[in-house]
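Retro notes - structure team

What went well: the batch runner handled both jobs without manual restarts.
What didn't: labels got mixed up in the shared folder, which is why I'm recording both outputs here explicitly, each with its sequence directly above its C-alpha coordinates.

Job 1
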Amino acid sequence: MPLALITKLRPAAAETAVEPSLLAAARAGNLSALGRIYELTQHRARRFARRLVGDDAAAEDLVQDVFAQLPRLLGRYRGDGPFEMFLLGVVSRRARRHLRTAIRRRKLHDRFSVAADASPPTPECDTDRHELATLLVRALDTLPRDQRVAFVLREVEGLTSAEAAAVEGVPEATIRTRVFHARRKLQAELARLGVA
Protein backbone atom coordinates (compact mmCIF):
# COMPACT_ATOMS: atom_id res chain seq x y z
CA MET A 1 0.00 0.00 0.00
CA PRO A 2 1.67 3.27 -1.13
CA LEU A 3 0.26 5.31 1.74
CA ALA A 4 1.98 3.05 4.26
CA LEU A 5 5.27 4.44 2.94
CA ILE A 6 4.35 7.86 4.33
CA THR A 7 5.24 6.82 7.86
CA LYS A 8 8.85 6.56 6.68
CA LEU A 9 8.79 10.32 6.15
CA ARG A 10 7.84 11.04 9.78
CA PRO A 11 10.44 12.72 11.95
CA ALA A 12 12.48 10.36 14.13
CA ALA A 13 12.18 12.31 17.39
CA ALA A 14 9.62 14.72 18.79
CA GLU A 15 10.65 18.16 20.00
CA THR A 16 10.50 19.13 23.65
CA ALA A 17 7.20 20.67 24.80
CA VAL A 18 7.01 24.36 25.60
CA GLU A 19 6.54 24.78 29.34
CA PRO A 20 3.90 27.22 30.69
CA SER A 21 6.59 29.08 32.66
CA LEU A 22 8.49 29.69 29.40
CA LEU A 23 5.33 31.03 27.77
CA ALA A 24 4.70 33.33 30.74
CA ALA A 25 8.24 34.69 30.55
CA ALA A 26 7.90 35.28 26.82
CA ARG A 27 4.59 37.09 27.32
CA ALA A 28 6.35 39.32 29.87
CA GLY A 29 8.83 40.34 27.16
CA ASN A 30 11.76 38.09 28.02
CA LEU A 31 13.70 37.83 24.74
CA SER A 32 15.62 34.72 25.76
CA ALA A 33 12.29 32.97 26.46
CA LEU A 34 11.07 33.94 22.97
CA GLY A 35 14.29 32.56 21.56
CA ARG A 36 13.88 29.32 23.47
CA ILE A 37 10.31 28.92 22.20
CA TYR A 38 11.64 29.43 18.69
CA GLU A 39 14.34 26.78 19.25
CA LEU A 40 11.81 24.28 20.58
CA THR A 41 9.15 24.72 17.91
CA GLN A 42 10.70 26.02 14.71
CA HIS A 43 11.79 22.64 13.30
CA ARG A 44 8.32 21.13 13.55
CA ALA A 45 6.64 24.30 12.25
CA ARG A 46 9.05 24.42 9.30
CA ARG A 47 8.60 20.72 8.53
CA PHE A 48 4.81 21.07 8.69
CA ALA A 49 4.81 24.18 6.48
CA ARG A 50 7.10 22.47 3.97
CA ARG A 51 4.76 19.51 3.78
CA LEU A 52 1.73 21.73 3.32
CA VAL A 53 3.07 24.11 0.69
CA GLY A 54 5.52 21.74 -1.00
CA ASP A 55 8.08 24.47 -1.61
CA ASP A 56 11.05 25.08 0.68
CA ALA A 57 11.31 28.81 -0.04
CA ALA A 58 7.60 29.46 0.51
CA ALA A 59 7.63 27.34 3.67
CA GLU A 60 10.62 29.26 5.00
CA ASP A 61 8.92 32.60 4.31
CA LEU A 62 5.74 31.39 5.99
CA VAL A 63 7.56 30.18 9.11
CA GLN A 64 9.63 33.35 9.37
CA ASP A 65 6.44 35.39 9.14
CA VAL A 66 4.81 33.33 11.90
CA PHE A 67 7.79 33.61 14.23
CA ALA A 68 8.23 37.32 13.55
CA GLN A 69 4.73 37.71 14.98
CA LEU A 70 5.35 35.33 17.90
CA PRO A 71 5.03 38.00 20.63
CA ARG A 72 1.58 38.96 19.30
CA LEU A 73 0.60 35.31 18.82
CA LEU A 74 1.41 34.54 22.45
CA GLY A 75 -1.33 36.99 23.43
CA ARG A 76 -3.86 34.97 21.43
CA TYR A 77 -2.85 31.64 22.94
CA ARG A 78 -5.35 30.77 25.71
CA GLY A 79 -3.71 27.58 26.95
CA ASP A 80 -6.58 25.30 25.86
CA GLY A 81 -4.06 22.75 24.61
CA PRO A 82 -0.35 22.37 23.97
CA PHE A 83 1.28 25.48 22.51
CA GLU A 84 2.73 23.37 19.70
CA MET A 85 -0.79 22.53 18.48
CA PHE A 86 -1.74 26.21 18.60
CA LEU A 87 1.36 27.06 16.57
CA LEU A 88 0.61 24.37 13.98
CA GLY A 89 -2.88 25.84 13.66
CA VAL A 90 -1.39 29.27 12.94
CA VAL A 91 0.95 27.75 10.35
CA SER A 92 -1.97 25.87 8.80
CA ARG A 93 -4.07 29.00 8.43
CA ARG A 94 -1.18 31.00 7.01
CA ALA A 95 -0.40 28.24 4.53
CA ARG A 96 -3.74 28.72 2.75
CA ARG A 97 -2.44 31.66 0.70
CA HIS A 98 0.93 30.07 0.07
CA LEU A 99 -0.63 26.74 -0.86
CA ARG A 100 -2.83 28.20 -3.58
CA THR A 101 0.10 30.08 -5.06
CA ALA A 102 2.45 27.10 -4.85
CA ILE A 103 -0.02 24.79 -6.59
CA ARG A 104 -0.59 27.27 -9.41
CA ARG A 105 3.15 27.80 -9.81
CA ARG A 106 3.86 24.05 -9.85
CA LYS A 107 1.15 23.38 -12.44
CA LEU A 108 2.55 26.13 -14.65
CA HIS A 109 6.06 24.72 -14.26
CA ASP A 110 4.88 21.19 -15.09
CA ARG A 111 3.07 22.45 -18.17
CA PHE A 112 6.18 24.07 -19.61
CA SER A 113 8.87 21.71 -18.33
CA VAL A 114 10.98 19.64 -20.67
CA ALA A 115 10.60 15.85 -20.56
CA ALA A 116 12.77 14.24 -17.92
CA ASP A 117 16.08 12.67 -18.93
CA ALA A 118 15.62 8.92 -19.37
CA SER A 119 19.26 8.10 -18.63
CA PRO A 120 19.97 5.47 -15.96
CA PRO A 121 20.26 6.78 -12.42
CA THR A 122 23.70 7.59 -11.08
CA PRO A 123 24.89 7.74 -7.47
CA GLU A 124 24.35 11.51 -7.63
CA CYS A 125 20.66 11.12 -8.48
CA ASP A 126 17.96 11.66 -5.90
CA THR A 127 17.17 8.79 -3.59
CA ASP A 128 13.98 6.78 -3.74
CA ARG A 129 12.79 8.60 -0.64
CA HIS A 130 13.14 11.96 -2.37
CA GLU A 131 11.29 10.67 -5.42
CA LEU A 132 8.50 9.34 -3.23
CA ALA A 133 8.30 12.66 -1.42
CA THR A 134 8.05 14.49 -4.76
CA LEU A 135 5.26 12.18 -5.94
CA LEU A 136 3.46 12.61 -2.62
CA VAL A 137 3.63 16.39 -2.91
CA ARG A 138 2.14 16.16 -6.40
CA ALA A 139 -0.57 13.83 -5.14
CA LEU A 140 -1.25 16.09 -2.14
CA ASP A 141 -1.68 19.01 -4.57
CA THR A 142 -4.78 17.28 -5.93
CA LEU A 143 -6.51 17.30 -2.53
CA PRO A 144 -8.77 20.07 -1.28
CA ARG A 145 -7.00 22.17 1.36
CA ASP A 146 -8.98 20.81 4.33
CA GLN A 147 -8.29 17.19 3.38
CA ARG A 148 -4.62 17.94 2.73
CA VAL A 149 -4.13 19.57 6.12
CA ALA A 150 -5.98 16.78 7.96
CA PHE A 151 -3.95 14.13 6.15
CA VAL A 152 -0.60 15.82 6.81
CA LEU A 153 -1.44 16.37 10.48
CA ARG A 154 -2.53 12.76 11.03
CA GLU A 155 -0.42 10.67 8.70
CA VAL A 156 2.77 12.68 8.27
CA GLU A 157 3.05 14.65 11.51
CA GLY A 158 1.64 11.70 13.48
CA LEU A 159 -0.91 13.66 15.52
CA THR A 160 -3.99 11.97 16.95
CA SER A 161 -7.39 12.85 15.55
CA ALA A 162 -8.08 14.87 18.70
CA GLU A 163 -4.83 16.83 18.35
CA ALA A 164 -5.46 17.47 14.65
CA ALA A 165 -9.00 18.61 15.47
CA ALA A 166 -7.58 21.05 18.03
CA VAL A 167 -5.14 22.44 15.46
CA GLU A 168 -7.87 22.96 12.88
CA GLY A 169 -10.63 23.95 15.29
CA VAL A 170 -13.08 21.34 14.02
CA PRO A 171 -14.71 18.25 15.56
CA GLU A 172 -12.61 15.09 15.75
CA ALA A 173 -15.05 13.25 13.47
CA THR A 174 -14.48 15.89 10.79
CA ILE A 175 -10.75 15.15 10.85
CA ARG A 176 -11.38 11.42 10.53
CA THR A 177 -13.74 12.01 7.60
CA ARG A 178 -11.27 14.29 5.85
CA VAL A 179 -8.45 11.77 6.30
CA PHE A 180 -10.66 8.96 4.98
CA HIS A 181 -11.48 10.89 1.80
CA ALA A 182 -7.89 12.11 1.44
CA ARG A 183 -6.59 8.53 1.62
CA ARG A 184 -8.97 7.38 -1.13
CA LYS A 185 -8.03 10.28 -3.40
CA LEU A 186 -4.31 9.87 -2.70
CA GLN A 187 -4.39 6.15 -3.44
CA ALA A 188 -6.06 6.83 -6.79
CA GLU A 189 -3.63 9.64 -7.63
CA LEU A 190 -0.55 7.65 -6.61
CA ALA A 191 -1.76 4.72 -8.71
CA ARG A 192 -2.16 7.13 -11.63
CA LEU A 193 1.41 8.36 -11.04
CA GLY A 194 2.65 4.76 -11.09
CA VAL A 195 3.44 4.26 -7.40
CA ALA A 196 2.67 0.67 -6.51
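Job 2
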Amino acid sequence: MSLGLIESIDVLNRRLLEYYGRFENGEQNWKLFWSEDFLEKKLCNETENGILLLTPEIRTVKKVNYIQNKYVLTKLVAVPERNRAELLGAKTSYEPMWTFEDLAKNPIIPDWGGIKAIIDTALENFLNAKHKAPEQMPEFMHQTEEARRDRVEKIMEQFYGNESSITDSLALDSGVGYGVRKRNDWLH
Protein backbone atom coordinates (compact mmCIF):
# COMPACT_ATOMS: atom_id res chain seq x y z
CA MET A 1 0.00 0.00 0.00
CA SER A 2 1.32 3.43 -0.81
CA LEU A 3 1.79 6.09 1.82
CA GLY A 4 -0.47 8.45 -0.14
CA LEU A 5 -4.18 9.05 0.23
CA ILE A 6 -6.38 5.95 0.46
CA GLU A 7 -9.08 6.21 -2.18
CA SER A 8 -12.51 4.66 -1.79
CA ILE A 9 -13.42 1.61 -3.85
CA ASP A 10 -16.01 3.69 -5.71
CA VAL A 11 -13.31 6.19 -6.74
CA LEU A 12 -11.00 3.36 -7.81
CA ASN A 13 -13.80 1.72 -9.84
CA ARG A 14 -14.56 5.04 -11.56
CA ARG A 15 -10.87 5.42 -12.35
CA LEU A 16 -10.76 1.86 -13.73
CA LEU A 17 -13.64 2.77 -16.04
CA GLU A 18 -11.91 5.98 -17.19
CA TYR A 19 -8.55 4.29 -17.89
CA TYR A 20 -9.58 0.87 -19.16
CA GLY A 21 -13.03 1.50 -20.65
CA ARG A 22 -15.97 -0.71 -21.33
CA PHE A 23 -16.44 -4.14 -22.88
CA GLU A 24 -18.37 -4.41 -26.16
CA ASN A 25 -21.61 -4.95 -24.20
CA GLY A 26 -21.13 -1.66 -22.32
CA GLU A 27 -20.03 -3.14 -18.99
CA GLN A 28 -16.84 -1.99 -17.30
CA ASN A 29 -13.73 -4.03 -18.32
CA TRP A 30 -12.03 -4.08 -14.89
CA LYS A 31 -13.72 -3.78 -11.50
CA LEU A 32 -12.90 -4.10 -7.80
CA PHE A 33 -15.16 -6.16 -5.54
CA TRP A 34 -15.20 -7.01 -1.86
CA SER A 35 -15.05 -10.82 -1.87
CA GLU A 36 -18.15 -11.19 0.33
CA ASP A 37 -20.17 -9.03 -2.10
CA PHE A 38 -18.88 -10.74 -5.25
CA LEU A 39 -22.03 -12.69 -6.14
CA GLU A 40 -23.55 -14.34 -9.19
CA LYS A 41 -26.89 -15.91 -10.10
CA LYS A 42 -26.40 -19.52 -10.97
CA LEU A 43 -28.44 -22.59 -11.85
CA CYS A 44 -27.64 -25.05 -9.04
CA ASN A 45 -28.18 -28.82 -9.07
CA GLU A 46 -27.43 -29.31 -5.38
CA THR A 47 -27.83 -27.53 -2.07
CA GLU A 48 -25.05 -25.71 -0.26
CA ASN A 49 -24.52 -28.91 1.77
CA GLY A 50 -24.05 -31.00 -1.39
CA ILE A 51 -27.47 -32.69 -1.44
CA LEU A 52 -28.66 -33.35 -5.00
CA LEU A 53 -31.87 -31.51 -5.92
CA LEU A 54 -34.68 -33.15 -7.93
CA THR A 55 -35.01 -29.99 -10.02
CA PRO A 56 -32.29 -27.36 -10.42
CA GLU A 57 -32.93 -23.99 -8.81
CA ILE A 58 -31.65 -20.48 -9.45
CA ARG A 59 -29.61 -19.18 -6.55
CA THR A 60 -27.43 -16.17 -5.81
CA VAL A 61 -24.09 -17.54 -4.64
CA LYS A 62 -20.66 -16.20 -3.76
CA LYS A 63 -18.53 -16.09 -6.89
CA VAL A 64 -15.27 -16.85 -5.06
CA ASN A 65 -15.98 -18.79 -1.88
CA TYR A 66 -12.26 -19.53 -1.49
CA ILE A 67 -11.47 -15.83 -0.86
CA GLN A 68 -12.74 -14.35 2.40
CA ASN A 69 -12.83 -10.68 3.44
CA LYS A 70 -10.45 -9.31 0.81
CA TYR A 71 -10.67 -7.03 -2.18
CA VAL A 72 -10.55 -8.74 -5.57
CA LEU A 73 -9.61 -7.15 -8.90
CA THR A 74 -11.71 -8.69 -11.67
CA LYS A 75 -11.75 -8.67 -15.47
CA LEU A 76 -14.90 -8.96 -17.55
CA VAL A 77 -14.56 -11.87 -19.96
CA ALA A 78 -16.78 -13.61 -22.48
CA VAL A 79 -18.41 -16.78 -21.15
CA PRO A 80 -17.89 -19.80 -23.44
CA GLU A 81 -21.10 -21.08 -25.01
CA ARG A 82 -20.87 -24.41 -23.14
CA ASN A 83 -20.91 -22.64 -19.72
CA ARG A 84 -23.78 -20.22 -20.39
CA ALA A 85 -26.60 -22.53 -19.25
CA GLU A 86 -25.13 -22.75 -15.75
CA LEU A 87 -24.87 -18.93 -15.62
CA LEU A 88 -28.43 -18.46 -16.92
CA GLY A 89 -27.34 -17.52 -20.42
CA ALA A 90 -24.92 -14.80 -19.34
CA LYS A 91 -22.51 -13.92 -22.15
CA THR A 92 -20.00 -12.19 -19.85
CA SER A 93 -18.70 -12.71 -16.36
CA TYR A 94 -16.32 -10.91 -14.00
CA GLU A 95 -13.46 -13.27 -13.21
CA PRO A 96 -10.92 -12.75 -10.42
CA MET A 97 -7.49 -11.62 -11.58
CA TRP A 98 -5.85 -10.49 -8.32
CA THR A 99 -6.55 -10.81 -4.62
CA PHE A 100 -5.29 -7.97 -2.45
CA GLU A 101 -3.41 -9.80 0.27
CA ASP A 102 0.12 -9.84 1.65
CA LEU A 103 2.44 -12.85 1.78
CA ALA A 104 0.85 -13.96 5.04
CA LYS A 105 -2.61 -13.90 3.34
CA ASN A 106 -3.69 -10.82 5.33
CA PRO A 107 -5.98 -8.42 3.45
CA ILE A 108 -4.49 -5.20 2.12
CA ILE A 109 -6.18 -2.05 0.85
CA PRO A 110 -5.95 -1.62 -2.94
CA ASP A 111 -4.30 1.55 -4.23
CA TRP A 112 -4.26 2.99 -7.73
CA GLY A 113 -0.52 2.52 -8.33
CA GLY A 114 -0.71 -1.19 -7.54
CA ILE A 115 -3.91 -1.71 -9.53
CA LYS A 116 -2.48 0.04 -12.59
CA ALA A 117 0.73 -2.01 -12.40
CA ILE A 118 -1.25 -5.28 -12.15
CA ILE A 119 -3.53 -4.45 -15.09
CA ASP A 120 -0.76 -3.08 -17.31
CA THR A 121 1.30 -6.23 -16.68
CA ALA A 122 -1.69 -8.47 -17.42
CA LEU A 123 -2.52 -6.58 -20.63
CA GLU A 124 1.10 -6.80 -21.77
CA ASN A 125 1.08 -10.55 -21.10
CA PHE A 126 -2.22 -10.96 -22.98
CA LEU A 127 -0.70 -9.13 -25.95
CA ASN A 128 2.57 -11.09 -25.86
CA ALA A 129 0.71 -14.40 -25.60
CA LYS A 130 -0.61 -13.82 -29.12
CA HIS A 131 2.91 -13.58 -30.56
CA LYS A 132 4.74 -16.82 -31.19
CA ALA A 133 8.31 -16.93 -29.91
CA PRO A 134 10.94 -17.35 -32.63
CA GLU A 135 11.84 -20.98 -33.13
CA GLN A 136 15.40 -21.99 -32.47
CA MET A 137 17.09 -25.18 -33.45
CA PRO A 138 17.69 -27.33 -30.35
CA GLU A 139 21.34 -27.59 -29.33
CA PHE A 140 21.50 -31.35 -29.97
CA MET A 141 20.65 -30.70 -33.62
CA HIS A 142 24.01 -29.01 -34.14
CA GLN A 143 25.84 -32.19 -35.09
CA THR A 144 29.25 -30.79 -35.99
CA GLU A 145 32.24 -32.26 -34.15
CA GLU A 146 32.97 -28.90 -32.50
CA ALA A 147 29.35 -28.50 -31.32
CA ARG A 148 29.39 -31.99 -29.76
CA ARG A 149 32.72 -31.31 -28.04
CA ASP A 150 31.41 -28.00 -26.64
CA ARG A 151 28.28 -29.72 -25.40
CA VAL A 152 30.27 -32.48 -23.67
CA GLU A 153 32.57 -29.89 -22.06
CA LYS A 154 29.57 -27.97 -20.72
CA ILE A 155 28.07 -31.14 -19.26
CA MET A 156 31.38 -32.17 -17.71
CA GLU A 157 31.77 -28.70 -16.20
CA GLN A 158 28.26 -28.88 -14.73
CA PHE A 159 28.84 -32.28 -13.14
CA TYR A 160 32.51 -32.16 -12.27
CA GLY A 161 33.49 -28.48 -12.33
CA ASN A 162 34.56 -28.40 -8.68
CA GLU A 163 36.45 -31.70 -8.72
CA SER A 164 40.12 -31.99 -7.90
CA SER A 165 42.28 -34.50 -6.03
CA ILE A 166 41.95 -32.36 -2.88
CA THR A 167 38.15 -32.06 -2.96
CA ASP A 168 37.83 -35.79 -3.81
CA SER A 169 40.06 -36.74 -0.85
CA LEU A 170 38.07 -34.57 1.53
CA ALA A 171 34.74 -35.89 0.28
CA LEU A 172 35.90 -39.54 0.57
CA ASP A 173 37.51 -38.98 4.00
CA SER A 174 40.88 -40.10 2.64
CA GLY A 175 42.48 -36.66 2.94
CA VAL A 176 44.63 -35.50 5.83
CA GLY A 177 43.77 -32.28 7.61
CA TYR A 178 44.31 -30.46 10.86
CA GLY A 179 41.75 -29.86 13.57
CA VAL A 180 38.47 -31.57 14.39
CA ARG A 181 36.08 -32.34 11.58
CA LYS A 182 32.42 -31.98 12.49
CA ARG A 183 30.53 -34.12 10.12
CA ASN A 184 27.06 -35.56 10.53
CA ASP A 185 26.40 -37.18 7.18
CA TRP A 186 27.59 -40.57 8.46
CA LEU A 187 24.34 -40.69 10.48
CA HIS A 188 22.20 -40.84 7.35
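One thing worth noting from job 2: The chain has a mean pLDDT of 77.
We'll revisit the folder naming next retro.
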